[in-house]
Automatic annotation (TrEMBL):
Belongs to the carbohydrate kinase PfkB family. Signal peptide: none annotated. Its EC number is 2.7.1.4. This is Fructokinase. Residues 3-288 form the Carbohydrate kinase PfkB domain. It comes from the Bacteria. It is an enzyme of class 2 (transferase). Pfam families: PfkB (PF00294). One of its GO terms (molecular function) is fructokinase activity. InterPro entries: Carboh/pur_kinase_PfkB_CS, PfkB_Carbo_kinase, PfkB_dom, Ribokinase-like.
Length: 295
């Protein structure tokens, strides 16, 4: 069976001081789908794109990486302007639409479902996320969620936190960054943030911390995954690469989390960190292929 990814596909307009704007395919869920396809997973992406040049570019780009895209192209494709700092980090400004047609995947059966980012919070498409996660629960698919918090888009903290916790309580795997965790739970330390998400019902939590070790935790084990040292082109797609690695490696593991050893969690973290390192070593969300050395 395939993996279903639900979420936005858009064009990143990358701006850096002294350089012309660079246009690149992006959107966190689309990047996750792209990464899964490149790692050899069979993957479907339910998304919303325009029938313009940018939409056609996105569809071709995803399909070249083995992603089966389900969308009814119309109107203008969403964009995200990423402004790069000298250290390669990025801040975003979005122009978005999120209204996917879930009937396009009515006949699907999936080993795993991943949802996240803006698509998990933004109406009307958030209703499709809920319905498909409910289908996944009924069919015992592995359910994964990355909030990829964008405060300027997802609304007030209280309502966004409630939405995050509702989704985190329904899935098996939650991956988030330290920036996400601090926005959601600003008064808590790392251990408390992880425990809170595990207490909501998630079976595995992965918390990435930029240039510091990532933390991967279940109710019975906790490990730190060292970040690989590379020359950083930019950080675009790093978290998405980490997420796609987790989904790829865990897609058949829904009933096994409580029994996972520290060694198994270490291997998950090593794989995800290695793949994310490939991504940050080159410009844009250029996630690794399975055939690449080190991927």
């Amino acid at each position: 069976m395939s993996i279903l990814v639900i979420g936005e596909a858009l064009i990143d307009i990358v701006s850096a001081a002294g350089s012309p704007d660079r246009y690149a395919p992006g959107g966190a869920p689309a990047n996750v789908a792209l990464g899964l396809g490149r790692l050899g997973s069979t993957v479907d992406l339910l998304t919303d794109v325009g029938d313009d040049f940018h939409g056609g570019f996105l569809l071709a780009h995803l399909r070249e990486s083995g992603v089966s895209v389900h969308a009814r192209p119309t109107g203008s494709t969403s964009t995200a302007r990423a402004v790069l700092s000298p250290d390669g980090s990025a801040e975003y400004d979005f122009s978005l639409r999120w209204a996917p047609d879930a009937s396009l995947v009515d006949d699907g059966e999936w080993s795993a479902i991943h949802a996240g980012s803006i698509a998990a919070f933004l109406s009307p498409g958030a209703a499709a996320v809920d319905a498909l996660l409910e289908r996944g629960q009924a069919s015992s698919a592995l359910l994964c969620f990355d909030p990829n918090i964008r405060p300027t888009i997802i609304g007030a903290h209280e309502s966004a936190l409630t939405r995050f916790e509702v989704l985190a309580s329904r899935v098996d795997v939650v991956k988030l960054s330290d920036v996400d965790a601090d926005w959601l739970y600003p008064e808590s330390n790392r251990e408390s943030q992880i425990e809170r998400i595990l207490d909501l019902g998630a079976s595995l939590v992965a918390l990435t911390r930029g240039s510091e070790d990532a933390i991967i935790a279940t109710a019975s084990a906790r490990v730190r995954a060292p970040v690989r040292t590379v020359d950083v082109a930019d950080t675009i797609g790093a978290g998405d690469s980490f997420m796609s690695s987790l989904v790829h490696d865990l897609q058949d593991s829904r009933s096994q989390f409580d029994a996972m050893s520290e060694s198994e969690l270490n291997q998950l973290g090593e794989n995800a960190s290695r793949r994310a390192a490939v991504t940050v070593s080159r410009a844009g969300a250029d996630l690794p292929w399975a055939s690449e050395e080190g991927a």
